[in-house]
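Tutorial, part two.
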Amino acid sequence: MGRRQVVRHRVLVSTFLGSNPSGPVLKIEKVSAQKIFLLDFDGVIVDGMREYWHSSLLACEKYLDSPHITVDQNLYKRVPNTFKEIRPWVKYGWEMVLIVHEIIKTKNPIKNRNKNEFINKYHQNCQIILKDYSWIPEDLQKILDESRNYQIDKDFEAWVNLHNPFDEVINFLEELRKREIKSGIITTKGEIFAKKILKHLNIFPEFVFGYESGTKIKIAKNLTETYEILGFIEDRKKTLIDIKQNSDTCHIPCFLAEWGYLKDSDKHNLSNEIKLLKLGDLEHLVAI
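Running the prediction step on this input gives:
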């Protein structure tokens, strides 16, 4: 699998001088690093599509103060296919607020007939919209977080039940625990929200890093100094490519979660270094 064994050295100083009267004898003992699996959260551990739509829609209605939208309460009842189809292009939560706004706005909204025009230049279009409305990504992220906090304070059970866990992944995490292999979560969701959902699912990883902690590649790089990383399961292909192209993290085995929010093209032209992983493969992955 191209896994690199991470080894730390512990220096033991013996007080017995023996035949060496000039000083203590140094003994070098190798101590293996702790083994750990890294996982993304949204699209890997849980399907949060209903929550993304609901929380982003609420953020638009309650906090965005946009004159270009009118929120019909029926919009909360189902997630539009247009939103589902754009979701694989999303990297950060604030983008979902922007997308929902563009889908529900009264003039020239994104619909099925024109969604490909938006997708084909996704990042450029997001930047144009930010500029047109004088929005700042950090502000959009803030109102998304406020929307989630509002729901949690009002009815935690209703909010958390908008997330559907993947049972096979929950079982995989439990099997890791039984084998004394640690798990760690790296997500672009806010750390506090990921922890609340994980606690509800009775999952307690070694750590949870949210968007507040920086990029996933930076986090993974720092973790290689402490852990032997057995694998990173992620549903964003570009993230895994970045991991493999960085000299400090290229040894990490990378797995693209087939059950996640993938673009149609993501499953094709994968390098040999990134393995397409199905839910049914997880039970075999524990044995690596």
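The two ends are 8 Å apart (CA to CA). In part three we will examine how such features are distributed along the chain.
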